[in-house]
Amino acid sequence: MKKSKGVGALNKIIIKICILILIIISFVIIVKYFHLKEYLSIEGFNKYRDQIIMFQQANMEKFVLGYIIAYIVLIACCIPGTILFDLIAGFLFGYFLGTLLVVFSYSIGAVINFLLIKYIFKEVFAHKFNKFKNLVQSDNKSRVILNLIGLRLIPIIPFWVLNIVTALLNVSLKVFLFSTVIGIIPASIIYVIIGDGIRDVVNQNQQLTIHSIMNVKILLPLFFMSFLMFIPTIIKKIKS
User: Fold this and answer.
1) Is the pLDDT of residue 84 over 50?
2) 173 and 65 co-located in one domain
3) 94 and 28 within one domain
4) Quick one: which of 28, 73, 237, 239 has the fewest CB in 10 Å?
């Protein structure tokens, strides 16, 4: 009886791993088929930027919807690339609308990812992220919320890892969503503003280069981002 249960559990894990692999393979095929790597580089951007801007202006509603769906899929499937999407939001939609789209899309994607891990893929990841659990778990609910917000504000671990760890710890959806929204706002604003600064460069009919983006509107938010990343070190120094 125990053996049949063990085999059944193993089969479930294998099926879930196969689904995960299928999702990854599908994403790779889409990237290759549509030659997306050409667009995701400075050279590709300079080559296609006018077409992108014209398409966006002519199909604003479709473009916004496509952006939201793409971002949600990115987060739900734990695919790296959120910084690029934040920059794109600032470039195409400006800092205000861009920030709203980023926070909304990331939050929805994170919730889907959270629910997938919690109810479908929990066995797959159960023992893979134990070393990160102590950063989040606490008997005090308020402390859990503060830990989650702090880990979003100061990215000690990747956000997708935090999504998985939170799901494994059975944190409530309400706590997860609240801490995610509050925690991602500062970094999202910074990256979106950088994207908006890149748009200023393009509006001056300049080719985008590493040198051309080194202006105050871009360097200032980068400084604040660097400051956020150094906060843990500063805290340790103060304690010692």
Assistant:
1) yes
2) yes
3) no
4) 239
Looking at residue 206, the DSSP 8-state letter turns out to be: P
**163-192: burial string, b at 16+ Cβ within 10 Å, e else:** bbbbbbbebeeeebeebbbebbbebbbbbb
Q: Measured between alpha carbons, how far is 182 from 206 in angstroms, rounded to an integer?
A: 36
Q: What is the pLDDT of residues 136-151, one digit of tens each?
A: 877 777 888 888 888 8
**pLDDT tens digits for range 205-236:** 555 555 555 554 555 666 666 566 555 555 55
Instruction: Judge if 48 and 117 occupy the same domain.
Output: yes
**Helix crossing, 82-119 with 173-203: angle to 10°?**
160
CB 84 within 8 A of CB 74: no
Maximum separation of any 2 CA atoms in the chain, in Å: 72
Same-domain check for residues 2 and 61: no
> Worst-scoring range by mean pLDDT, 20-29, 160-169, 190-199?
20-29
Query: How many Å apart are CA 198 and CA 91, to the nearest integer?
Result: 6
Check residue 234 and give its pLDDT: 59
At 216 the pLDDT is: 47
Give the residue numbers spanning the domain of 22: 1-34
Q: Give CA separation, 4 vs 1, 57, 120, 121, in Å.
A: 5, 59, 20, 21
Do residue 62 and residue 29 come from a single domain? no
> 3-state secondary structure string, 163-176?
HHHHHHCCCCHHHH
**What pLDDT is stored for residue 44 in this prediction?**
60
CA-nearest of 23, 1, 38, 117 to 74 is 23
Structure-block tokens of residue 174: 């309400």
- The tally of domains found in the chain comes to 2
Residues 24 and 129 in one domain: no
